[in-house]
Design goal:
This protein is mainly β. Among the domains are: 84 residues; 115 residues, S-adenosyl-L-methionine-dependent methyltransferases (Single Sheet); 101 residues, Immunoglobulin-like; 89 residues, no CATH class. Helix content is 10%, strand content 36%. It is built from eight helices and 42 strands. Strands 1, 2, 3, 4 and 5 form a five-stranded antiparallel β-sheet that branches. Strand 19 and strand 20 form a beta hairpin. The longest helix has 20 residues. The protein is extended, with a radius of gyration of 37 Å. It starts with a strand and ends in a 5-residue tail after the last helix. It comes from Penaeus vannamei (Whiteleg shrimp). One of its GO terms (molecular function) is serine-type endopeptidase inhibitor activity. Keywords: Disulfide bond, Protease inhibitor, Serine protease inhibitor, Signal. Pfam families: A2M, A2M_BRD, TED_complement.
Length: 827
């Protein structure tokens, strides 16, 4: 059982597998089960013998894995953790198709996915699908998906599809017995007085889009019509809570074949009765570029009797922004440090683009954090503004069935496919059906009409056989979600051979000294040509740079370029990671890594250039670096001065040392790297503040500052600040006192009064036209109007106005005084 993958240059990890505690009455203590040292390079899988894991308690729902890894040579340490949840089923099932309403006379097409415990699709698995006694075997595709079509005569209120793993005899799992792999999926049954229906075939996958381009979409619509051969169809498309398309057209309702796979039918479909016609037509939609990330499509018509027949569905659209934006490097292949590269930003004409290029390590650390910008993050904000369908829903089954508006069940209506009816009474209580109102509600539309929209009959439920589950998917033994964690963000090894194509550079003469975390951060104007290009010098870091452009167009709006990377590489280089800071005279070990990505072993001399700002125990080391490997040379330095101490390390290929087995034909390779080491003073920092008042008479004044005893030589620093306002240093952050009044009568005044004194103070120093004054005045007006709501009928004030038994003398006096002071600022 594979639990975790690791990525490194060369790590020695210590692995611990444990049963995590759960907040249950009989929880098991956290118990370490396995400790395994292992040495590896690159990415590795860890195999765990599950016989060592004792889960003989029903309260154990998962395993916790921790890994502490140490990089060989440098000693750098890192740790990681993952949680593996235990599944109680070999497979689980999920209903992934969009449409989940069973319509009269129409088959219900269901796409079901069989999933492993890690939620990945289970391919080539034989499953059995049943509705009551009608069963059929299916085999999942490469994604674990199969399609089953339920004919209309098998659809009943509270009916369900049962899916099981065929011939699942062995219930023995890695960690004990498993529950049977079974899933239950319940139908929402549509009711129509005329047994008519419309059903949209919604694509399972998101519709492709092009940034800044329109979206073409063709939706098949299935129908059953009762004694009507033509209808005026009305179409509405809603996206981001706005109606973006309204249309109407006359549609001939003639019999035609339905676009379905007959092999997926549980049973052959029965013929319709006289007067009914079944068929399909397509709706062609041309949607604007802003119809993303989803659109609700509603199609409806009304019969001669005034009944509304409606169908709706939600179509997922790819995440596309209105403004085109892209970023390109030239050359696109790997570059060497200090190379010049051409950068081209392409966007909609007359756009303004902000370009950011950061080190891959910075990009990884910023993933998912607040403020990180991506197309997914932008659309997540849009999704947050979408109204919840259940919030403010027009569908109120209890109120509908308790009122006088619900129609009685029409016993004369013959439901298509002989849909079974439950016992209906004149005492309405609930309903097992949906109707046209559900289609409007799902499309996020409020509907007011004199047509017949609500037709669902009401019933008294039979509690003897009442099914507590109202709809959706319910699993007999629900598997825990999750499974084996993926190594998200892991950098895969590149087998493209790009490294072999890098030409061997001649000996570097210029040292590498520029190692920024952010390389480029600037704003560029895009003219009528729709692009701009410029050259930039690559920094000295051997890394991968990630660039993104954020563009804004005055007519179209926002555009984001996909992240574009530039790999900076050289087959022979040094690397040094310095501590954040060290103290003067501290003995500091520095480990210099020498990387050799050539195809032969290299004897290398590593040296540290002497400098008056530090001393070192040794200034040179010789190491033998195997092909495609790394070795470490350690230097111990003692800083002699505070500040940034420059360290210059150099490495070069020398003649083969004894035992290096490097061969005779050695390449000429070298690298020079300069990195600063931040050195701070020893001891403890202490600040002493002296305040002096000066009179503005034009004369010079001199004063002396006494230094304390025991001061570290050279560490003294003096900072002088002057202010013409005595209160200036004390109220630097005056804007923090400006607050929006809120709350009850007392809380409102607590936030109201500071605004008065802020405005008074700024007026007195001649800054009455500042933005803070405008904001404080606006808040005072709001607070004044809010406080008036707590004024009682006798003129006094209290915390909750007339809701209190009497007014508050203290609050009334405080309000009177505060209003008097604020009267000069608000009218």
């Amino acid at each position: 059982m594979t639990l975790l993958s690791f990525l490194s240059r060369l790590f020695i990890p210590r692995l611990a597998l444990a049963l995590p505690p759960f907040p249950l009455p009989l929880e098991r203590p956290f118990r370490e089960l396995l400790l395994r040292p292992q040495t590896f390079s690159g990415c590795t899988d860890v195999e765990v013998d599950t016989s060592l894991i004792d889960t003989g308690s029903h309260y154990v729902h998962g395993l916790a894995l921790t890994a502490d890894i140490t990089e060989e040579g440098t000693g750098h340490m890192a740790s990681g953790a993952a949680t593996l949840k235990l599944a109680s089923q070999r497979l689980s099932f999920a209903w992934i198709s969009r449409g989940k309403d069973a319509k009269p006379g129409l088959p219900l097409e269901m796409q079901i996915q069989a999933r492993f415990p890690d939620q990945s699709g289970a391919p080539d698995v034989e499953v059995t699908a049943c509705v009551e006694t009608a069963c059929k075997d299916f085999v999942t595709d490469e994604h674990g998906v199969f399609t089953v079509i339920v004919p209309p005569h098998l659809v009943k209120p509270r009916g369900k599809l049962k899916v099981t793993l065929t011939n699942e005899d062995d219930q023995q799992g890695h960690l004990g017995n498993l529950h049977p792999s079974v899933g239950y999926f319940y139908f929402d049954v549509y009711y129509s007085e005329s047994n008519s229906s419309l059903s949209l075939v919604i694509p399972t996958d998101a519709v492709d889009c092009t940034p800044g381009g329109d979206i073409s979409l063709s939706l098949p619509v299935l129908f059953v019509a009762n004694n009507i051969n033509q209808a005026l169809m009305r179409l509405q498309v809603i996206s981001r809570s706005q109606v973006i398309l309204v249309d109407s057209f006359v549609q001939d309702l003639v019999a035609s074949d339905l676009p379905l796979d007959e092999d997926a039918l549980l049973e052959p479909m029965a013929d319709l009765e006289d007067g009914f016609v079944r068929g399909s037509f397509s709706v062609q939609l041309e949607l604007p570029y802003y119809a993303s990330p989803s659109v609700n499509v509603l199609v409806w018509y009304s019969t001669a009797a005034g009944e509304v027949i409606a169908g709706s569905g939600t179509v997922e659209v790819g995440a596309c922004l209105p403004t085109v934006a892209s970023l390109a490097w030239a050359p696109a292949g790997p570059a060497a440090p200090k190379d010049n590269v051409q950068i081209t930003i392409t966007a909609s004409p007359n756009s303004i683009c902000s370009l950011g290029v950061v080190d891959r390590s910075v990009e990884i650390l910023s993933r998912g954090k607040t403020g990180s910008l991506s197309t997914a993050a932008v659309f997540q904000l849009l999704t947050a503004t979408e109204p919840y369908k259940w919030l403010g829903s027009q569908i109120d089954n209890y109120g509908y069935c308790s009122g006088d508006t619900s129609p009685p069940f029409n016993e004369d209506v013959v439901e298509i496919g002989e849909i079974a009816k439950r016992s209906y009474y004149w005492m309405p209580y609930t309903t097992s059906y949906i109707d046209a109102l559900s289609a409007f509600n799902d499309a996020t539309l409020l509907v007011v009409s004199d047509l017949t929209i609500e037709t669902r009959p009401c019933e008294v439920p039979d509690f003897g056989g009442f099914d507590m589950y109202g709809g959706g998917a319910v699993y007999a033994a629900g598997p825990l979600p999750g499974g084996i964690p993926d190594a998200d963000g892991a950098i895969e090894e590149d087998d493209s051979g790009a490294g072999d194509e890098i030409k061997e550079a001649e000996e570097q003469q210029e040292p590498r000294a520029y190692f920024p975390e952010t390389w480029l951060w600037d704003i560029y104007e895009i003219g009528d040509a729709g692009s701009t290009s410029f050259s930039a010098r690559v920094p000295d870091t051997v890394t991968e740079w990630v660039g993104e452009a954020v563009c804004v167009n005055p007519e179209l709006g926002l555009g984001l370029s996909p992240p574009t990377t530039l790999t900076v590489f050289t087959p022979f280089f040094l690397d040094l990671t310095t501590p954040p800071s060290v103290r003067r005279q501290e003995r500091v070990p520095l480990r210099v890594s020498v990387f050799n990505y050539l195809d032969q072993t290299l004897p290398v001399s590593v040296s540290l250039s002497p400098n008056a700002t530090f001393t070192a125990e040794e200034y040179a080391h010789s190491v033998c670096v195997p092909a495609h490997s790394m070795r470490v040379a350690e230097f111990v330095v003692v800083p002699q001065e505070a500040g940034d101490v420059g360290l210059t390390f150099s490495a070069s290929v020398t003649s083969a040392d004894e035992g290096c087995d490097a061969g005779d034909d050695l390449p000429t390779k070298s690298d020079v790297m300069i990195k600063p080491l931040k050195v701070v003073f020893e001891g403890v920092q202490r600040e002493i503040v002296h305040g002096v008042f000066l009179c503005g008479d034009g004369e010079n004044e001199t004063w002396s500052l006494a230094t304390p005893s025991g001061i570290v030589e050279g560490s003294e620093r003096v900072f002088v600040s002057a202010s013409a306002d005595l209160l200036g240093p004390s109220i630097e952050n005056l804007g923090n006192l400006v607050r929006m009044p809120y709350g009850c009568g007392e809380q409102n005044m607590i936030n109201f009064v500071p605004n008065i004194y802020v405005v008074k103070y700024l007026d007195s120093i001649g800054q009455g036209d500042s933005d803070i004054v405008d904001q404080a005045t606006s808040f005072m007006i709001t607070g004044y109007q809010r406080e008036l709501t707590y004024r009682r009928s006798d003129g006094s004030y209290s915390a909750f106005g007339d809701s209190d038994s009497e007014g508050s003398t203290w609050l009334t006096a405080f309000v009177l005084r505060s209003f008097a002071e604020a009267s000069q600022y608000i009218t």
